[in-house]
Write a structure and sequence with these properties.
By secondary structure, the protein is mainly alpha-helical. 84% of the residues lie in helices and 0% in strands.
């Protein structure tokens, strides 16, 4: 069970690296005026999104396996309120990731309509979710 949890944490870190940095690339892209810079950012966004997909997929896989392992040890584990809240926040992370997928495609088509200011605020969402999830998992209120 501890191996599953360890790999879950490793891939959560990988996933969050992309969730934190991809929107920052969007800010740079929205502010870029040179074609060469914009084309290079498209490549960086595409590659970072791939790493983020892999990290997110494996974080979710190991998270589900860890959840099943804990539930197998004690069925009461699934009745804890903090766990329900955490899983709800994970759903929000998945939605956020989906938004990054769409935005990456929009930037690739030069179809972004968001301001760099909006993107800067959007970039803070995963940090807030991470804080909430960490508090729930560690404190278990």
């Amino acid at each position: 069970m501890l191996w599953l949890k360890a790999f879950h944490v490793v891939f959560v870190v990988t996933w969050f690296a992309g969730l934190f940095y991809l929107p920052r690339l969007f800010v740079y892209h929205a502010e870029a005026s040179e074609t060469v810079v914009r084309e290079r950012l498209k490549i960086m966004e595409r590659r970072l999104l791939m790493m983020t997909r892999i990290g997110g997929t494996l974080a979710l896989l190991f998270g589900v396996l860890t959840l099943f392992a804990f539930a197998h040890s004690s069925i009461d584990y699934l009745k804890q309120g903090w766990l329900h809240a955490k899983l709800g926040l994970v759903v929000l992370l998945i939605v956020y990731h989906g938004m990054l997928e769409r935005m990456t495609a929009q930037f690739a088509r030069d179809a972004n309509r968001r301001s760099s200011r909006w993107l800067r605020v959007f970039n803070e969402v995963p940090a807030l979710l991470l804080i909430a999830i960490a508090v729930l998992v560690v404190v278990k209120p």
